[in-house]
Amino acid sequence: MLGMLIRRRQGWRLIVAAGLIAAAHCAHAAGSAILELELAVQRTLANNPGLKSLGYQIEEQRGAVTQAQVAPALEFGLMVENALGSGDFNAIDAAETTLNLGWILERGKRQYYIDEARAGTSMLEAQSGIARLDAVAYTARLFLNNLEAQERLTLAREAVDTAEKTVSGIAERVHAGRTPPGDLSRAETELASIRLAAEDLEHSLATARYELSAQWGELHPDFQRVAGDWQNLPAPADFEVLMAQVERSPTLTAYLTQRRLEEAKLRVAQAQAKPDWRIDASIRRFEETNDHAFVASIIMPLTSADRNRGSVQQARARLARVDAERAASKLQIETQLFSIYQALQHSLHRAESLRDEVLPLAEEALTQTRRGYEAGRYSYYELQQLQNERLAHSVSLLEASINARRYIVEIERLTGAMLPVVQPTP
Fold first, then answer.
1. Phi-psi region of 3 (alpha: psi -120 to 50; beta: other; left: phi over 0)
2. Residue 150's closest CA among 194, 192, 203, 195?
């Protein structure tokens, strides 16, 4: 497998084809480092700028939970009556002084607010898990881009080496008068073309390295190669096994979390239909008689539950919409899974055919044609054509193998689970 692609403590893992990660550890010498996928993923999870912002959103929502737990403040009041008037109410001799303590009777609403805030935190954490999984999948794609680019460059350099040897051999034959000079010109032209293609691939590889290191915010890649055995083809399990994972996919799990959030919002809306009551308790002092008395009051707004009927209706509609969206998302995931699995099977079949049938035949044909050319039975054009065909088949094998791994990454991104892979028989 490619390796663990997300933190164990969160339970998310994204793993691709067997044997792709080499056993050697990452070398740290500047300019010669070999990067493994697991290290690339660790760097992404630790330093990806987009993931960091999600962490701050979760922390912000946790603050909302803390705030929801705060009870309404008690209110203290002092009221003086019948003072500073005229006649018997001159000064404060006949004053009445009332010390008041008031509070809101929430009638259980605060717990609903707390539940809603906590559900919001769970929703953000679920979204963060999906974002982390997407970031890991994207890192895996970029890693495979690097692997493909560097192996394309290896094939191109091998082609350059073959072309150089061909030019050298033809030059000797031309010098000996056994081959027309035109063959040498064509061989030198082919060599120049292959060198240009190799140079293009060098630039593509540099770009691929830059894009990968940007995943963890590094603009100067500290590696020159990525580790991976692309020739070892995976053998994924049956499609039914993958379909069983869909119900537990991160996306559908997030809908369950969102449903809990909408349920909490519905309970809040229903609770808000009940108005708050206000209770006041007071101590009153009568200056004229030097007596004290207790005063209490309760204030109940004259309203009905219908005043919040619209908000309750909205909350119920949002709850129903979540269920509908989840059903639609499940169907979409299952459809995508089927399509990607078919493409995976096709890529594996193509790679196996190229590796086991086409390339061996192309190698044999090239060997015979090279011998025939040296004996004067074949033209340079025929030799050149077979050399190009052999290179094209090698590139096709590389593409099919890398594409198979790309499809596995996509399957695991959809299901959010480790893809069951049967180790291929040697």
1. left
2. 203
- What is the band of 237 on the pLDDT scale with cuts at 50, 70, 90? confident
> For the chain, what is the mean pLDDT?
81
First vs last C-alpha separation in the chain? 16
3-class SS shares of the chain: helix, strand, coil, % to 5: 65, 10, 25
In which band, very low, low, confident or very high, does the pLDDT at 87 lie, cut at 50, 70 and 90?
A: low
Spatial distance between the Cα atoms of 411 and 417, rounded to a whole number of angstroms: 9
Cβ pair 271, 84 in contact under 8 A: no
Q: Per DSSP, which regions of 197-350 are E strands?
A: 225-226, 277-286, 291-299
Exposure on the CB side of residue 404, measured as CA atoms within 13 A:
26
Please give the domain boundaries of the chain with CATH numbers for all domains: 8-70+109-273+322-415 (1.20.1600.10)
Helix (H, G, I), strand (E, B) or coil at 229: coil
Distance, CA of 43 to CA of 60 (rounded, Å)? 24
Q: What is the mean pLDDT of residues 189-202?
A: 94
Q: pTM, whole model, 2 decimals?
A: 0.75
C-alpha to C-alpha distance for 389 and 369, rounded to whole angstroms: 13
Burial class (CB in 10 A: 0-12, 13-18, 19+), 95: middle
Query: In angstroms, rounded to a whole number, what is the distance separating the alpha carbons of residues 41 and 219?
Result: 16
The label of the residue with tokens 């190669």 reads 225
In this structure, how many other beta carbons lie within 10 angstroms of the beta carbon of residue 304?
11
What's the whole-number mean pLDDT along residues 346-357?
94
Residues 6+ apart with CB under 8 A from 365: 386
| pLDDT category of residue 418 using cuts at 50, 70 and 90 | low
Q: Where would I find the H helices in 214-299?
A: 239-246, 250-272
**Would you say 405 and 144 are in contact if contact means Cβ atoms under 8 Å apart?**
yes
In this predicted structure, the answer to whether residue 423 has a pLDDT above a threshold of 50 is no
